[in-house]
Amino acid sequence: MPSKLTRADVQRVAALARLDLTDAEVDLFTSQLEQFLGYASEIQRIDTTGVTPTTFAAEGTAWRDDEPVPSLDRDTVLEQAPDAARAAGLFKVPKVL
Prior knowledge:
The protein is built from 3 helices and 2 strands; from the N terminus they run H-H-H-E-E.
Protein backbone atom coordinates (compact mmCIF):
# COMPACT_ATOMS: atom_id res chain seq x y z
CA MET A 1 0.00 0.00 0.00
CA PRO A 2 1.29 3.49 -0.82
CA SER A 3 2.56 5.66 1.98
CA LYS A 4 0.05 7.83 3.82
CA LEU A 5 -0.81 11.15 2.22
CA THR A 6 0.42 14.04 4.33
CA ARG A 7 -0.60 17.66 4.78
CA ALA A 8 2.70 18.59 3.12
CA ASP A 9 1.68 16.57 0.03
CA VAL A 10 -1.61 18.47 -0.22
CA GLN A 11 0.12 21.81 0.34
CA ARG A 12 2.68 21.00 -2.38
CA VAL A 13 -0.05 20.08 -4.89
CA ALA A 14 -2.04 23.19 -3.93
CA ALA A 15 1.04 25.34 -4.52
CA LEU A 16 1.58 23.74 -7.95
CA ALA A 17 -2.07 24.46 -8.79
CA ARG A 18 -1.68 27.98 -7.39
CA LEU A 19 -4.41 27.38 -4.81
CA ASP A 20 -4.36 29.27 -1.54
CA LEU A 21 -5.85 26.86 1.00
CA THR A 22 -6.71 27.54 4.61
CA ASP A 23 -5.48 25.15 7.30
CA ALA A 24 -9.01 23.74 7.58
CA GLU A 25 -9.11 23.09 3.82
CA VAL A 26 -5.72 21.39 3.90
CA ASP A 27 -6.96 19.10 6.70
CA LEU A 28 -10.22 18.38 4.85
CA PHE A 29 -8.55 17.67 1.51
CA THR A 30 -5.86 15.54 3.13
CA SER A 31 -8.55 13.36 4.69
CA GLN A 32 -10.68 13.19 1.54
CA LEU A 33 -7.76 12.41 -0.76
CA GLU A 34 -6.46 9.75 1.65
CA GLN A 35 -9.91 8.08 1.56
CA PHE A 36 -10.02 8.31 -2.23
CA LEU A 37 -6.55 6.82 -2.63
CA GLY A 38 -7.45 4.03 -0.20
CA TYR A 39 -10.52 3.21 -2.27
CA ALA A 40 -8.47 3.26 -5.49
CA SER A 41 -6.01 0.88 -3.85
CA GLU A 42 -8.88 -1.50 -3.00
CA ILE A 43 -10.13 -1.37 -6.60
CA GLN A 44 -6.67 -2.28 -7.89
CA ARG A 45 -6.69 -5.47 -5.80
CA ILE A 46 -9.77 -6.84 -7.60
CA ASP A 47 -9.00 -9.99 -9.59
CA THR A 48 -9.84 -9.23 -13.21
CA THR A 49 -8.36 -12.41 -14.62
CA GLY A 50 -10.44 -13.48 -17.60
CA VAL A 51 -12.28 -10.17 -17.88
CA THR A 52 -12.09 -8.81 -21.40
CA PRO A 53 -10.84 -5.22 -21.43
CA THR A 54 -13.32 -2.67 -22.73
CA THR A 55 -12.20 -0.01 -25.12
CA PHE A 56 -15.52 1.82 -25.11
CA ALA A 57 -18.04 1.75 -22.27
CA ALA A 58 -21.09 1.72 -24.53
CA GLU A 59 -19.69 -0.83 -26.97
CA GLY A 60 -22.43 -2.94 -28.46
CA THR A 61 -25.17 -0.40 -27.86
CA ALA A 62 -27.25 0.72 -30.78
CA TRP A 63 -26.51 4.22 -31.97
CA ARG A 64 -28.90 6.22 -34.06
CA ASP A 65 -27.70 7.66 -37.35
CA ASP A 66 -26.67 11.27 -37.19
CA GLU A 67 -29.17 13.02 -39.40
CA PRO A 68 -29.06 16.78 -39.96
CA VAL A 69 -32.23 18.63 -39.01
CA PRO A 70 -33.14 22.27 -39.51
CA SER A 71 -32.13 24.57 -36.67
CA LEU A 72 -34.54 26.81 -34.82
CA ASP A 73 -35.73 29.93 -36.59
CA ARG A 74 -33.70 32.86 -35.24
CA ASP A 75 -36.56 35.38 -35.26
CA THR A 76 -38.93 32.98 -33.47
CA VAL A 77 -36.37 32.29 -30.76
CA LEU A 78 -35.41 35.96 -30.33
CA GLU A 79 -39.08 36.91 -29.96
CA GLN A 80 -39.09 34.92 -26.71
CA ALA A 81 -36.07 36.75 -25.28
CA PRO A 82 -36.52 39.88 -23.15
CA ASP A 83 -36.00 43.12 -25.08
CA ALA A 84 -32.87 43.90 -23.05
CA ALA A 85 -31.36 40.55 -24.01
CA ARG A 86 -31.52 41.15 -27.79
CA ALA A 87 -28.85 43.00 -29.69
CA ALA A 88 -28.29 42.98 -33.47
CA GLY A 89 -30.24 39.74 -33.90
CA LEU A 90 -28.20 37.94 -31.25
CA PHE A 91 -28.70 37.07 -27.60
CA LYS A 92 -27.00 39.57 -25.35
CA VAL A 93 -25.54 37.90 -22.26
CA PRO A 94 -23.48 39.17 -19.32
CA LYS A 95 -19.71 39.25 -19.79
CA VAL A 96 -17.95 36.21 -18.32
CA LEU A 97 -14.28 36.51 -17.46
